[in-house]
Design goal:
The structure holds two protein chains of two kinds. Chain A is α+β, with helices and mostly antiparallel strands. Chain A is about 40% helix and about 20% strand. Chain A is built from two helices and five strands, in the order H-E-E-E-E-E-H. The chains are: A alpha+beta, B mainly alpha. The interface between A and B is medium-sized, with 24 and 29 residues.
């Protein structure tokens, strides 16, 4: 009986205690680092979102804090969203002057392409940016602004400019440039942006409250 | 400053004789995934080196307090805590680097080279040598990563140091070297197979150098 008690102590209780001690020290360290870095991480993330949003909505036209002006977007097929998403309303002196919408192009070459689309109150595009994608590196990644200015061609376009038939890549008779060898990707983005504009047209009242 | 024989031996092993990337072939998952450009490779390599130095050092300090049976769980606990601390710090103070490294930053925890050095070296050796071993092995891995990254970026895109501005900010914007103008790119080099082929060539080159002696 005594031997079993000692065995229990040496092989189960003591190691368990040591492991508990190390876990406690680890948890303490993690909690401390989290406390220390949480404000800085929050600031960095806010700044990142801010810089992303102002690329599709020029800072001259609004004066509110976009990152704080969130609205919920429903899972609408025109936005490509399967779950509710986020939008941001730009205001000048309290008056709404545009929105930034989270949009998904569901039919990329390698899965979905996540976009943000900035639309002025008059229906003109402020700009479009790709937020996340898995398109072929080196071939279809020219949709990223850091690799090529391709995505800038959306700026200033609207539902009527070009006319509906022009909302396609040149290969399909539209007005948008693309690069040979990677047509599926720009096709998906053009379609998603066109859909986002249609959504804005339909929901304008609601979005610009 | 004189370098002791033990230190020189550790550096030689980490950087060349026992190089984790092309001799021990440990920690290949991030190596193959992130070595598509020089900047990505260097960033992950240095982050891994930092974690290896810290974890080898911490384990060496407490090496006599841990019962043999508990070694591995305690080591993994220490490595996981350190990786999380480092990734929180990077996220807070170097967000662009955090975005470049993505999932491969937390995955340093599962990089077997970290646990391998802790288990094989730091659990038996004095603290200062263990830290040096972590640094030497980390730098050895970084050197292979950067070489592979340079090869893949050069053949794949015709550039070197592209994306340096993502890590170092605006000043690095002009650092990208375009070695081939109007180069169409060799996509295979950038895709995962390029990593395997490149690594194979590096291992062959090293074997050739050794056989030549």
């Amino acid at each position: 009986m005594k031997r079993r008690a000692r065995q229990f102590l040496n092989h189960i209780a003591l190691p368990g205690l040591i492991l508990l001690l190390f876990s406690a020290i680890g948890a303490f360290l993690l909690a401390g680092t989290h406390q220390l870095t949480a404000p800085a991480i929050d600031r960095a993330q806010r700044a990142l979102l801010q810089s992303l949003l102002t690329q599709v909505m020029p800072t001259e036209v609004f004066d509110n804090d976009l990152t704080q002006a969130r609205i919920d977007l429903p899972a609408d097929p025109l936005l490509g969203l399967k779950k509710p998403g986020q939008g941001y309303v730009a205001r000048q002196g309290g008056k709404p002057v545009g929105v930034v919408l989270e949009v998904i192009a569901p039919d990329g070459y390698a899965g979905v392409i996540r976009l943000i689309v900035g639309i002025h109150a008059d229906g003109r595009l402020g700009g479009v940016r790709v937020v996340a994608h898995q398109e072929t590196p080196g071939l279809a990644d020219y949709i990223e602004i850091k690799r090529s200015p391709w995505i800038n061609q959306f700026g200033g376009k609207s539902l009527n400019e070009p006319a509906p038939a022009g909302w396609a890549v040149r290969k399909d008779g539209g007005t948008f440039d693309y690069r040979t060898g990677a047509t599926v990707t720009p096709r998906a983005i053009v379609k998603a942006v066109h859909h986002a504009l249609q959504y804005f047209e339909r929901e304008r009242e609601q979005l610009l409250k | 400053m004189m370098i002791s024989d033990a230190s020189r031996d550790i550096l030689y092993k980490g950087l060349w004789q026992q190089n984790p990337g092309i001799v021990q072939l440990l920690g290949l998952c991030p190596l193959l995934a992130v070595s598509n450009t020089v900047v990505n490779a260097l960033s992950l390599g240095l982050a891994t080196t930092l974690v290896m130095a810290l974890s080898s050092g911490s384990v060496a300090i407490i090496r006599n307090l841990i019962p043999n049976a508990l070694r591995v769980p305690v080591f993994i606990l220490i490595i996981a805590v350190l990786v999380t601390v480092v990734s929180l710090l990077i996220q807070a103070y170097a967000q662009p680097l955090y975005l470049v490294l993505g999932i491969f930053l937390p995955l340093i925890t599962t990089n077997c080279i970290v646990l391998a050095r802790v288990e094989a070296f730091a659990s038996k050796q004095p603290t200062h040598l263990s830290i040096l071993d972590g640094i030497a092995m980390g730098l050895g891995l970084t050197a292979v990563l950067v070489t592979l990254g340079a090869l893949r970026e050069l053949f794949g895109k015709g550039t070197l140091f592209s994306g340096a501005d993502l890590v170092l900010g605006e000043i690095a914007k002009g650092w990208t070297l375009t070695l081939f103008q109007n180069y169409d790119g060799f996509i295979l080099a950038i895709l995962p197979p390029g990593a395997f082929i490149g690594l194979g060539l590096l291992i062959a080159l090293r074997n050739r150098l050794i056989a030549g002696r």
